[in-house]
């Protein structure tokens, strides 16, 4: 059997590497238009940082896993084609700021229709609005080579930072489809390492909608606990104690109740906005408003954090040095898409703070590019003043100590483990006084830091 995957990103790369590792008899070809991404997949510096990914790729690459830009050839040779391209929020025209941009999906479907001969199974791996498979089927049916297709929906539930563990032992694999034979063919691939009772099959539309719904529910939990964190700060209740108290109720459960500076990542916001747009499209105003509130609450949490920094530092951060620890949207990834850090840094820059940023896995180019985009307008235009602001007020360093040296404050924006184990006496000595710490992830030992002399502010904790 031959599999091709279009899109060598955070989903296509790790997912296909796992299939290739677990199914040595299947030949897996991952293709992308982006030459430098493909070059990176073929090198020792993979484009995606994920614990355990290097080993999986090393085992299968060159054996039954290949990466290339030969899209047409890979499609032509494959029995099963996964589409794992990006589906970002549309930023122009109808539905701008909400709807998913399906341009890349449609281009893939057209390419498959053009190149294919015989029969192929096409698998939607990207996260898509419910009923996208209808459009995909129609485009494929226009194939002039007499090719025939079955379309399946097989959304991906991996989380970044734990992708390998999630792929190895998924809670479930979801396959939506009409053709029993096609569903079985895909179930047989996963069946090589996933227990059969964890492979759920549904109709196409339930599968497409389940992905958006799962992300909406997960994000809603984070926004719910973050909403309560604001109330904790005003009332001397402690958010970690509240999380524990409610999470022990087996109906609520303990996971995804960690208050934070706000959720980030390429999925939650995009997928909820997509859900909101769909509800609006179907005339379900109240349903749309309900889900939109999850994103509104998240924006509030990010803004609130930056405002608390300004307020508690005597209402001005202008020309003050603030160490930013962590820029990725969560630990154990180099991904910065929609990271809360971007928006906190943007707000602090607008207050003319001087930022010294450290993240163990994110490059200076990425940080600067994210900040320029955040400061720019919707069309991507950045004013000369904002460019100058980033140029003069942002420094990127390669360790947490250098970031904190001579700083007025430290803001912890990503929960990297290394931040728990630093020498805080040493850090305190090098900082300006009062030495403020803003823990946006509640990972630091408040008692210990207070004893050293820090003034520490944490999410959902009153001072
Ligand atoms: P990504 O941007 O990292 O990767 C997508 C890749 O597709 C890019 O490298 C791009 O160059 C390539 N591409 C686009 N159009 C192409 C074309 N016509 N031909 C060949 N290559 C093309 O995106 P991602 O994070 O991997 O996400 C992919 C999809 O999976 C999205 O729909 C996303 O919502 C979904 N998803 C993502 C995650 C995650 O954790 N990142 C988890 C579950 C689902
Ligand atoms: C998410 C879904 O979990 C995954 O199933 C889906 O396939 C893709 O989207 P991801 O965005 O990679 O995965 O990471 P996730 O662990 O869900 O975290 C998302 C954001 O929420 C991060 O910024 C994280 O720090 C934040 N978060 C998560 C919290 O603030 N508190 C929590 O309790 C959990």
TrEMBL record:
It catalyses: UDP-alpha-D-glucose + 2 NAD(+) + H2O = UDP-alpha-D-glucuronate + 2 NADH + 3 H(+). It is an enzyme of class 1 (oxidoreductase). Keywords: NAD, Oxidoreductase. Pathway: Nucleotide-sugar biosynthesis; UDP-alpha-D-glucuronate biosynthesis; UDP-alpha-D-glucuronate from UDP-alpha-D-glucose: step 1/1. This is UDP-glucose 6-dehydrogenase. Gene3D superfamilies: Cytochrome c1, transmembrane anchor, C-terminal, NAD(P)-binding Rossmann-like Domain. It comes from the Bacteria. Belongs to the UDP-glucose/GDP-mannose dehydrogenase family. The lineage of its organism: Bacteria, Pseudomonadati, Planctomycetota, Planctomycetia, Pirellulales. Residues 323-446 form the UDP-glucose/GDP-mannose dehydrogenase C-terminal domain. Coiled coil: none annotated. Its EC number is 1.1.1.22. PANTHER family: UDP-GLUCOSE 6-DEHYDROGENASE, UDP-GLUCOSE DEHYDROGENASE/UDP-MANNAC DEHYDROGENASE.
């Amino acid at each position: 059997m031959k599999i091709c995957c279009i899109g060598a990103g955070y989903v296509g790369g790790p997912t296909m590497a796992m299939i290739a590792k677990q199914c040595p008899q299947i030949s897996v070809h991952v293709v992308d238009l982006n030459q430098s991404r493909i070059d990176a997949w073929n090198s020792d510096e993979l484009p995606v940082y994920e614990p355990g990914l290097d080993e999986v790729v090393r085992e299968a690459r060159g054996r039954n896993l290949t990466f290339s830009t030969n899209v047409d050839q890979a499609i032509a040779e494959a029995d099963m084609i996964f589409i794992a391209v990006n589906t970002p929020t549309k930023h122009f025209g109808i539905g701008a700021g909400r709807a998913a941009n399906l341009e890349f999906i449609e281009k893939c479907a057209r390419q498959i229709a053009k190149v294919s001969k015989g029969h192929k199974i096409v698998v939607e791996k990207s996260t898509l609005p419910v009923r996208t498979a209808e459009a995909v089927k129609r485009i494929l049916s226009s194939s002039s080579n007499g090719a025939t297709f079955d379309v399946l929906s097989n959304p991906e539930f991996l989380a970044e930072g734990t992708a390998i563990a999630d792929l190895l032992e998924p809670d479930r694999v979801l396959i939506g489809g009409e053709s029993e034979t096609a569903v079985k063919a895909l179930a047989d691939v996963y069946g090589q390492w996933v227990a059969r009772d964890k492979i759920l099959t549904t109709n196409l539309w339930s599968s497409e909608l389940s992905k958006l719904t799962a992300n909406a529910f997960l994000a809603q939990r984070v926004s719910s606990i973050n909403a309560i964190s604001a109330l904790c700060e005003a009332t001397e209740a402690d958010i970690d104690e509240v999380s524990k108290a409610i999470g022990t109720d087996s109906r609520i459960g303990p996971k995804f109740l960690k208050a934070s500076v706000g959720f980030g990542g390429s999925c939650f916001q995009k997928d909820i906005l997509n859900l909101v747009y769909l509800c609006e499209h179907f005339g379900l105003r109240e349903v749309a408003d309900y889900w939109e509130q999850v994103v509104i609450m998240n924006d509030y949490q990010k803004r609130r954090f930056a405002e608390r920094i300004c307020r508690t530092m005597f209402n001005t951060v202008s020309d003050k040095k603030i160490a930013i620890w962590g820029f990725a949207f969560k630990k154990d990834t180099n991904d910065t898409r929609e990271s809360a850090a971007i928006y906190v840094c943007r707000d602090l820059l607008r207050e003319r703070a001087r930022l010294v940023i450290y993240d163990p896995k994110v490059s200076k180019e990425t940080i600067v590019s994210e900040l320029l985009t955040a400061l720019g307008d919707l069309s991507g235009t950045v004013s000369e003043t904002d460019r100058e602001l980033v140029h003069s007020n942002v420094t990127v360093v390669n360790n947490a100590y250098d970031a904190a040296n001579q700083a007025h404050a430290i803001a912890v924006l990503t929960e990297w483990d290394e931040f728990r184990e630093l020498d805080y006496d040493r850090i305190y000595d090098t900082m300006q006084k009062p030495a403020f710490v803003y823990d946006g992830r509640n990972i630091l030992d408040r008692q210990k830091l207070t004893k050293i002399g820090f003034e520490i502010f944490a999410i959902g904790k009153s001072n």
